[in-house]
Amino acid sequence: MPIKRLIGKIAIVTASTDGIGYAIAHRLAREGAKVIISSRKAKNVEEATQKLTNEGLDVTGLTCHVAKAEDRAKLFQEASKFGGLDILVSNAAVNPEVGGVLDCSESSWDKIFEVNVKSSFMLTKEALPLLRKSKAGRIIYISSVAGFQPFDLLGAYSVSKTTLLGLVKAAALQLAPENITVNSVNPGLVTTRFSSALTQNPAAREAALAQIPMGRFAVPDDIAGSVAFLASDDGLYVTGENIVVAGGMASRL
Ligand code: NAP
To answer: What is the CATH number of domain 10-190+219-247?
Structure first.
């Protein structure tokens, strides 16, 4: 059982019915936070909420497609019902196309930037009225090592993640005087549905593992611990940082 650093805190984690988002929600709840989980599909929300509440965790779930303003509004209404918001984790991302950045179609580019970048920007703006009422508001984006050094076959996706690194710096500067921190956690390769084309294909898997000095892919819980650190009082004085959690992979890129 992790230490309970988040008792009394209220957290929103987007795209949290599976993969990294689910592991983050699980970890924050195990540390004592009340967590609002969400994703697009009602069935996924229902199942994930059930699983977490079966463990005795204080979790509530609702459907939210992060690109839809009315869905995002529901998250904050829910948080208000519970008394406010202390922690926002913006985790959703899509990658509709595999290929180099200049091969990306306009429609895929728009979708990638709408979900991966604009939704984080909008969620941040929309969370502020509640975060300002918290004693120490936290904003955490899930970006990627691909944001530091683009992956050949994830061109536009990588650029979207680089944009988040800049948003962290700019928003952190603006919000630091209000004691609201803004940081990102940047995973390497994590075994989730999102990365399964790579991690499940034997040749791609071997090539990818050769790039990871620790010799294994991350599991979602490897990422959740860093988010919990930033969300807790241990992360009180950390802002404007893009933290890499990648088994040493960033040193190879
Ligand atoms: P994942 O396993 O594919 O998880 C997807 C989750 O996101 C599901 O709960 C899904 O539920 C939800 N979702 C998808 N689109 C959504 C949307 N538009 N709005 C709300 N929820 C949505 O993905 P993951 O690998 O955990 O990735 C999470 C984050 O980590 C992403 O930002 C990704 O870029 C980043 N990341 C992942 C890796 C990796 O290797 N996996 C590496 C670096 C960074 P529904 O289908 O019900 O919506």
So the answer is: 3.40.50.720
